[in-house]
Design goal:
single chain, 247 residues, mainly alpha, elongated
Length: 247
């Protein structure tokens, strides 16, 4: 328990230090663009692939469970929309990104720690946390665009699976998408997304920056980073759902 509190305290001290002694914009700008390319653009392919096919699976499973002829077919589209927007896109994709993006962040910073590049930055008087972590935080502000794409492709995959699989008609599926639509559900999803983006940028950075040892420990730190990032995302998801959706 004491060890966990120590880690939490060090984590918040790290966040404070990230915004101290910021580098000049001319130095920070190329770092930010590089992180956007690595963390956001580099993730679009896997997110698009998973979202499309999982959306289709959600639709098929929903259709196969609605066997009662009295249940209208438009509920297939309704269930797909609710599943994709409320949980699948913001939460499930974020856990996948904890494995892809989080491990990449931890291993890249951890490698710099092992090869003493971070020590060299500090000797030169550079705020190493601002140099390494701040561009990742800014880059992941674009993370909601990834989740927006995931929502669209999840629903599109569901529509294709439902219509071309013979489970529902296009009109019924679209009717289900429009039935009892609550705009705040989209707002809720993007609020979660911003919180998850901060988690994805900072917890893996913490594990990479404060790791000790050699090359073997870099792999271990990446694994621990993925576990803790996933745990915190799930806990944050529970808390935000209670705060934003419960009445």
């Amino acid at each position: 328990m004491i060890k966990m509190l120590t880690h939490i305290g060090r984590y918040f001290l790290m966040l404070k230090e990230v915004f101290n002694k910021p580098l000049k914009w001319s130095v920070m700008r190329p770092l930010i663009f590089k992180e956007i390319d690595d963390l956001i653009i580099g993730s679009l392919g896997i997110v698009a692939f998973i979202s499309f096919f999982v959306g289709g699976v959600v639709t098929i499973q929903t259709a196969l469970n609605l066997t009662n002829p009295l249940i209208p077919k438009y509920l297939i589209g309704f269930a797909t929309r609710q599943s994709v927007i409320l949980e699948f896109a913001p939460t499930f994709i974020s856990i996948i990104m904890a494995g892809k993006v989080g491990s990449f962040i931890t291993s890249s910073i951890g490698t710099m720690r092992v090869t003493e590049q971070i020590d060299a930055l500090e000797v030169m008087g550079v705020n190493s946390l601002n140099y390494l972590v701040f561009p990742k935080i800014i880059a992941l502000f674009f993370y909601p665009f990834v989740i927006g794409l995931s929502m669209f492709l999840g629903v599109l995959g569901g529509w294709i699976a439902g219509v071309y699989g013979g489970f529902t008609s296009s009109d019924e599926f679209i009717q289900g998408l429009q039935t009892e639509f609550t705009p705040f559900h989209v707002t809720y999803a993007f609020i979660k997304t911003f919180v998850f983006a901060l988690i994805l940028a900072t917890i893996p950075s913490y594990h990479g920056f404060y790791m000790k040892g050699g090359a073997l420990e870099v792999g271990k730190a990446s694994t621990v980073s993925f576990v803790w990032t996933s745990v915190v995302i799930i806990l944050a998801n529970y808390i935000l759902t209670q705060l934003l959706l419960s009445k």
